[in-house]
Structure formats: C-alpha cells, structure tokens
Design brief:
There is one protein chain. This protein has 364 residues and is mainly alpha-helical. The chain is 57% helix and 6% strand. The chain has 15 helices and five strands. It has a five-stranded parallel sheet, sandwiched between helices. Helix 4 packs parallel to helix 5. The chain is globular and about 65 Å long.
Length: 364
Amino acid sequence: MSISTPPAFPRGGRPEQLADQLLNAALAGDEHSAIELVVSALDEGADPEGILLDVIAPVQGKVGQEWAENRINVAQEHAATSINERVITALGVHPAVGTSITRGRITVACVDGEWHALPARLLSEVLKLRGWRIDYLGAQLPTPHLIAHLHTTGADVVALSSSIATRLPTTHAAISACQAIGVPVLVGGAAFGPAGRYAKLLGADAWAPDARAAADQLARSPLSRPQLDHQPIDDLPHLADQEYTLVTRNSDSLVRTVFAALEDALPFMNEYSDLQRERTAEDLASIIEFLATALYLDDEDLFTGFITWTAQVLTARGVPAQSLRPTLHLLALELKDFPRATRVLRAATRTVTTRHPSEAGKPA
C-alpha cells in the first residue's frame, strides 16, 4: 500500500502566489498579515517544508534584491527580514508541524562575524521536520563558544552557514576546530561560491546548495568522522607568502592612505558631507576586506565578482561605476610589492572597464 503525501499548496494554489503575497506584506511592514498568510496555508494542509523553502526563502532573496536595486533602504530590508523570522517562528509552533526526534543531533550556526541568520534558521527548521534534534545557535557565533558547545552536547554534525565571502577565513578556522575534536562539518551559503567551490578548498566534509539538499544528503548517509591530524595550512599553501596577513594587518592604514589619495585625485570629494565621507571610508574598507579574502583563497574571481556587484549597486544609486577605477588604481600603487594582490586588482580594473565601456575613456 502506498502512502500519498499531502499537496504542498492545496486548493490549486501555487507557492509563487503565496510568496508574492508574503513579500508584499513583509515590505509593507505588516507582520500580522504575513503570519496570517502562512498560518492559513498550514490550516488548509500546506506542507511546512514547502512553505519554508518555496515561499519564505525566495521572499527573503527578493528582499535582498530590492535593496541591491535601491528600491528599499537598509531599515526596510531589516524590517522585512525580521518579519520573515517571526513568520518562521509562527510556522514552527503550528499544530501541523509537530514532529518527533528519530535521528541524531546537529548543531546549526552562523560563523563568527556572519549576521545573516535566516538561511541557517531555515535549515534548522527543515532538519527538525526531518526528525533531527537541532541545536540552533544563531548568528555570529565565536568559534571557541561553538567548540565548547560541541564538547557538552556530542553533536553528530555541525552545519555552518555563511552568506558573506569575507567570513571565509574565519569559517576555515571554525571548520578546522570542529574537525580537530572529531566532528564533521557541513557548510552552506552564498559565501562558498558557485557549486560550493570554496567548501572543498577550505576542507569542509560536505557542502549543500540549500536546506533541502542538505537534509537529503544527511538522510542518505552520515558524514564520516574527520581525520584529526589535518592542519589548515595544508589547504592553502600560498598563504606562506604573507600577502593575506600583511594586507589584513594593515587594512586601517590602507583605508586612510587611499582615502587621502582619492581626495587629491578627485577634488569634488572635498565637498562631501560627513556622512558621504563616512560611507566612502566604509566602501574602501569593504574593498580591502574582499581583496584580503581573495588573497586568502588565491582566487581573483571572488574579488572581481564583488567589484562587479558593487558596480551594479553604485549604478542603481546613480553613482558611475567607473568611480571604482581610481580606487583600484591607488590601492594597486600601495600594494605594488605584492604580486598576487597586484594581479587581482588589475583583473578587477579590467572587469570594470569592460563592463562599463561607455565611461572607460572618461577621466578617473
């Protein structure tokens, strides 16, 4: 006898329709309507996992896109994200979501410095639905506290989430620390690049592109216990040239030096307001942080991808993308004795010039 599963969205509904309604409620700051939409769908027999992954997850992605394209501000993005978090909480306590623990124990956390907790939260809820006992530790968890938790709970697996690539050096340390006490690590999130290219580079035991794939992978077979003699430097021998260490150590000085040089090169910066100057310094710090991460991974595509994204964000805000060129040029001058950094900065400059040829001949 076969057991049929309930339709994910009954009464002929589609996840896209519910997602559109939820997005509108979240962007409007209407928490009551957002929760009511999901509760009503569950009352009608909708599949909880389908709502988590085919409704809430895409909605959060669209919220981020709305911000990147300058249709909402940071405060609106935070408010919408908070509403999505509370929608997940409402789903978790609905009578239709009651589950029993039939599998092992998994610790789910964001790496230190990672504030984007919603992907990890979605994974936690999906794994609960699949019968796992979950310790969800939330955003920005320092690695020593993660290890202390593992010592006291005896988790079978650690699932680490990271959305921002600049957290990858810290992630590498967390992966290695977990493995050093014999706990395998599954990683996921946008930080790990296309097809999880950086997960393997950093020695993770497994990678999954999304929560559903992670749950399926863990259900198929348990992760093997890692070897205890693994050393992080074995993954990244190029770090021996010290470029990553020196750029990171001197990042504040680089920001100050390049900012001052930009003021000389771009006289209009002298008329910037205090807020504009602050944001320019923050942008410089982000550029240097992504450069350092590219040096850590020895992957110029990471940096050029960030510069491409930054150019799109600037364009959406009415700032010419070619304004990045003098910044990259001045940073390359400061790092002229760093061969790998120079190579990465030149590649990024070519990317800006190629993607925005209409401005390529204008003075920087």
